Amino acid sequence: MRHRKASLKLNRTTSHRNAMFRNMVTSLFKHERIRTTGAKAKELRRWADHLITLAKRGDLHARRQALAIVREKQVVHKLFAEANEKFGHSAGGYTRIVKLGHRAGDAAPMSLIELVVVESGGKKKTKKKTAKRDAAKTKTAAVKKTAAEAKDVKKPAEKKDSKTEAKKKSETKSKPAAKTKTAAAKEKATEDKPKPGSKKKGVKD
Using an 8 Å Cβ cutoff, are 44 and 17 in contact? Predict the structure, then answer.
């Protein structure tokens, strides 16, 4: 029975196993994601969560405990400086394990373990979601631009059509008026001309 035995042996001695997980935790905090086997990833999650809780505590004793595990001072300094911003709003679940399938050589199940960063509002940041949001924003912006351009193109055409119609109406109105003026001028000319009968009567008198 495995009572009170939480850790895995992984077919290694204690010194070999501790050295391996120290190196893996260091590379995890340095690169924020590593690729390893499924069993190692599950065991590495315990080490990472322990170090993040120490970094969130942030006092000198916690820093010395972290330096006893991670031997690179720059990695520990970065972890303690950014722990409250990245992981301060959650009480666990600092890492994520994604299964990648089987390895080609020995068919070992491979996994990707990565750090999960939490926003101030309590929402987890993921690259896929942010990429989808950016793509949706760009699509909506492009659709709005095309709609605005189509409206701008339609408006001048409508204005031109209205102008041409107004010109045609004015021309049609002016033509009857001109006709009436010419008719009135002709009538006046006919009235001013003397009639032949009137001239003869005047001579006889």
Answer: no
